[in-house]
Amino acid sequence: MKSLAAKYFELCKPKVVYLIVFTAVVGMFLAVPGWPPLNALIAGTLGIALAASSAAAINHLLDQRIDAVMARTRDRPLPTGQLSVTQVLTFALFLCVLSMAILFIWVNALTAVLTFFSLIGYAIIYTVWLKRATPQNIVIGGAAGAAPPVLGWISVTGSVDPNALILFLIIYVWTPPHFWALAIHRRHDYAAANIPMLPVTHGVRFTRWHILFYTILLVLVTTLPYLTGMSGLLYLSGVTVLNLGFLWYALQLLRDNDEGVPMRTFGYSVIYLMVLFVFLLADHYLTMIIH
Q1: What is the torsional sign of CA 215, 142, 135, 267?
Q2: Rounded CA separation 250/210 (Å)
Q3: Tell me: the pLDDT tens digits for 49-101?
Q4: Which of 64, 92, 209, 281 is 20 to 30 A away from residue 223, measured at CA?
Q5: Of 117, 105, 127, 123, whose CA–CA distance to 148 is shortest?
Q6: From CA 273, how far away is CA 170, in angstroms rounded?
Q7: Rounded distance between C-alpha atoms, residue 36 and residue 30, angstroms
Q8: Which of 170, 160, 171 is nearest to 31 (CA)?
């Protein structure tokens, strides 16, 4: 039997929040030549993490009917009755208010405002409208999920920088092939829940081609840090290897009908993004040491 704390922790979608926070923190470090200010690092990380957790809890609340139908989600706290709607709503609002207070008081107003809009973009616009309206839902709604490194950057500098927007673009273009691989694996769940994901509305083959096209676009976009001078040869070497791996998986999806390939592609895409940001960070500080 799960403890009450474990049930609330599950509402936060910790694996998703970890990735969000990681990319936000890397954005903080990339924003400055040395170490970011400690107050911005701590308060910014905490505020962004709480906002992401609040958005996840709202997603649980708004998707409870769908979650009850889908095999992947039917054991979540709301469909199983482990938590009530009132409990989840109170928890989500508490996290949201706490997040905004921390960001406004200890970081800066721009970070707080943009974090709030990102929360609304994912928890409301994507979950309530886009997810149910169009098979391009993840493409249009991907902007909210791509915001964390920009939020991290702004929490340190107080302003938007073109290099921060490159980080945004990388995650934005990464999101469709990442999520569509999962959608192929879970297409029967989405069909049962009447959610118009691309594999449901246009078929698996069509989705596989889209994954390949977006992966090729991702290869181009991920060279921008090097082409703009934001990163050097260490990053370029690392991301080239990562991109070859992603292209290999995308081609495997086209050639192989093995039902395990989509989830292996999904798993690789998560590792891909994390390691890419590690390369960005390592290159940033290697360049600083050399100079």
Answers
A1: positive
A2: 9
A3: 999 999 999 999 999 988 898 888 889 999 999 999 999 999 999 999 999 99
A4: 209
A5: 117
A6: 9
A7: 9
A8: 160
